[in-house]
Task: inverse folding
């Protein structure tokens, strides 16, 4: 069964994408919840027209994301945390902490767009992936130091 997504859906696709799903998943979950519509000819035409009209807006958002990635290149992010006697962190570094550190530097990034390859539980240099746009991702290096 083909459906047209009405919003970004993690693991499935982005808004206005035509995706193939199992019929039960489409009929019983995606369509009733308002996440998708059936991909018939009329809905495909409407979606293609909407995409065409919004193309310049998407290009502008992508350009803004690239400018933001250039701003992130020039930042040195350091997160101060409490540590134990052996230098281990109490807990782990979260996306919220990194988003707050970026906000303190004047860059606003939604915490939901920040991901780590593994849990950060040690001092030192680490990396996080920031999804600025569906076509623009940025790998941010930051340090974790003892407070």
Result:
């Amino acid at each position: 069964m083909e459906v047209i997504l009405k919003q970004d859906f993690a693991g499935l696709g982005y808004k206005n994408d035509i995706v193939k799903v199992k019929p039960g998943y489409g009929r019983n979950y995606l369509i009733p919840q308002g996440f998708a519509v059936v991909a018939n000819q009329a809905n495909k035409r409407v979606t293609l027209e909407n995409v065409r009209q919004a193309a310049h807006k998407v290009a502008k958002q992508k350009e803004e994301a690239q400018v933001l990635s250039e701003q992130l290149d020039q930042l040195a992010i350091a997160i101060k945390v409490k540590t134990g006697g052996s230098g281990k962190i109490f807990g782990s570094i979260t996306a919220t902490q990194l988003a707050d550190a970026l906000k303190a530097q004047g860059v606003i990034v939604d915490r939901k767009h920040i991901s780590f390859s593994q849990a950060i539980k040690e001092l030192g240099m680490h990396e996080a992936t920031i999804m600025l746009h569906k076509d623009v991702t940025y790998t941010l290096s930051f340090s974790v130091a003892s407070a």
User: Anything to note?
Assistant: The radius of gyration is 20 Å. Helices lie at 23-30, 41-73, 95-104. The mean pLDDT is 91.
